[in-house]
């Protein structure tokens, strides 16, 4: 099991911001980039040397065990504990949103998939808020969620979108299951799994069907001055923002536009748009609640033990077809999966039936 350092805002977005002419925009972005780069280096060294085994006590299987800490704008973790499991809400809305988001994530995994916390064994859910000065990101460090407050110019408080919380915690689920390598197509799958289940956590909390959902990741995170609605769109990759400062959303919607790059670990936040759209297409083709059939198929593949850590899109696609058939037989589920991967140009090794 190899924890990776995963942020919700991709490096390519921060790179663009760091080159802005306005120091009020560029300086926080540069500091965020420098912080994230040092964290990634530390994570790689930990991977090589060997991480210390986690010894955290487990919570009850059917209830979360949450602890929220306040970094008070320093970069020292965990910070000061400000709300524990079962405590009443505090005056700080950021603390309360983090607490609720951890709970919403726990609830989806338990109620829908029978999974107790992110490791399946009641792992405590820890988070730190108010991290750093104008820190423009949120991340999972292998052990806890960490939220910046944003700079107020481009990014608002990172606890605002519940799917951001679900996204980052799902990196933990992936860490404890398929442990997808954070590079190239396997890294893009790692990111996509977090977007998929982050979106499902939001949809479950709101009681939305696939048709009602906005399929946006990070809606509400961008400040009013930004021309955009979110960090990513699963429904229409490449359309989440088109801004003078941030540039245009670079995500491809199919393999025809697959981006080959050496940055961002081989474009893990960019090419994730392809499997993201495949999930959206599957979920909307099947209709109803996306966490039920489409989400179950994706969850079966993530946790089934057959997904290799270096899997590529075609490997994952093939396993989703097999998982649909294994769980649902020769029904519409398998056909929806085949059709979705075909639309985004990823081969499954199976032919769709005519009709």
Average predicted local confidence, pLDDT: 92
Structural class: alpha+beta
Strand content: 5-15%
Number of helices: 10
Order of helices and strands: EHHEEHEEEHHEEEEHHHHH
Report the principal-axis shape.
Answer: globular
As laid out across the biggest beta sheet, the strand order is 1-5-6-4-2-3
Radius of gyration: 19 Å
Distance between the termini: 43 Å
Helical content stands at 40-55%
Number of strands: 10
Largest sheet: 6 strands, mixed
Unreliable runs: 45-55
In short:
The protein is α+β, with helices and mostly antiparallel strands and 355 residues long. It has helices at 11-18, 23-49, 93-113, 162-176, 184-206, 264-267, 273-286, 293-303, 313-328, 332-343; strands at 6-7, 66-70, 80-84, 125-129, 138-140, 145-147, 216-217, 232-233, 242-243, 247-248.
Main traits of this protein?
two-stranded antiparallel sheet; 43% helix; 355 residues; 10 strands; alpha+beta
Protein model, in words:
By secondary structure, the chain is an alpha+beta fold. Helices cover 43% and strands 9% of the residues. The chain has ten helices and ten strands. The protein has helices spanning 11-18, 23-49, 93-113, 162-176, 184-206, 264-267, 273-286, 293-303, 313-328, 332-343, and strands spanning 6-7, 66-70, 80-84, 125-129, 138-140, 145-147, 216-217, 232-233, 242-243, 247-248. Strands 1-5-6-4-2-3 form a six-stranded mixed beta sheet, with helices on one face. Strands 7-8 form a two-stranded antiparallel ribbon. Strands 9-10 form a two-stranded antiparallel sheet. β9 (242-243) and β10 form a beta hairpin. α7 crosses α8. The protein is globular. The N and C termini lie far apart (43 Å). The relative contact order is 0.11.
